Amino acid sequence: xxxxxxxxxxxxxxxxxxxxxxxxxxxxxxxxxxxxxxxxxxxxxxxxxxxxxxxxxxxxxxxxxxxxxxxxxxxxxxxxxxxxxxxxxxxxxxxxxxxxxxxxxxxxxxxxxxxxxxxxxxxxxxxxxxxxxxxxxxxxxxxxxxxxxxxxxxxxxxxxxxxxxxxxxxxxxxxxxxxxxxxxxxxxxxxxxxxxxxxxxxxxxxxxxxxxxxxxxxxxxxxxxxxxxxxxxxxxxxxxxxxxxxxxxxxxxxxxxxxxxxxxxxxxxxxxxxxxxxxxxxxxxxxxxxxxxxxxxxxxxxxxxxxxxxxxxxxxxxxxxxxxxxxxxxxxxxxxxxxxxxxxxxxxxxxxxxxxxxxxxxxxxxxxxxxxxxxxxxxxxxxxxxxxxxxxxxxxxxxxxxxxxxxxx
Length: 409
What we know:
It is built from 17 helices and no strands. With about 400 residues, the chain is an all-alpha fold. It is globular, with a radius of gyration of 22 Å.
């Protein structure tokens, strides 16, 4: 999929440039394209290089969280819920533990740990699956929860905002928390409706009401604030929660009597390796998007959306962030590059930059996740997994836009 997208970007940019040169007499378009290639290549390398320190710090902290058992603690809290929403999985099945550990790792931002556990969970669920080429109910629910972006700490988004000059990178924390919560809840309810799950028992209702009450209470608090104070308060709470996570992870490490400093260093080394590995991906996608904008294709797409929403009588300030929303279900690296490009073009603290950051944090690479996890166990019939996952994405995108207007202005 990413191969097709990347090629399409260059081909469409070339065709648009050809049209401008032949029919509009704009011979300078070729110079603009080549300049965009060189400038975006340099920018991609600089961004990756400057991210190294922040990436090392957060991955060092997450290594402490993993070694101290924070992931396991969250997994134990989720265990009673999973036993009830997946009635087809026996209580003694190791798949329950693998799924819970995967989701707990995702919530804490431990992507490297989450993927192996997720693949293991799919293999264990496949052993219980009577139709090996068709996704079971449990596999579908597990996938939709994975693709609905359950993330408590949007580390990478905060890092990119900081690197691109945001005065307050943590300002998007609360909007992302709300939007990703609504995305996850909608995905779960969609699957529950399709599979006719019994969600009216004490444990499930307790989780749902508790979840909804928390989101509702915080949302009500922010709604009561004057518009001018919402962004400042969001940033203050977001930064407080982030630093609270730092202290919590260190404290958990001290309680478990691990060598916190050495564990941090191990994770920080992984952060350096990741920073080096992402350079080719950033270069590939940022260059492709740069030529897309230089040729005029991206601006034409944005203008098309702007005209459509103007026709509907809707404010269009959010439209420049829509390329991130379009790209996210298809490609994580592509959406990340779109977000970066939006912040570079309009400013990290601009409204489009704010919206694109919230969208990036509240949606997931649906097609990629489904392809990897179902492909690993050779499932070809995914049933309701895709529509339910895309519904969660749609809710995440719509929520991100609405919340951005609520918090930013």
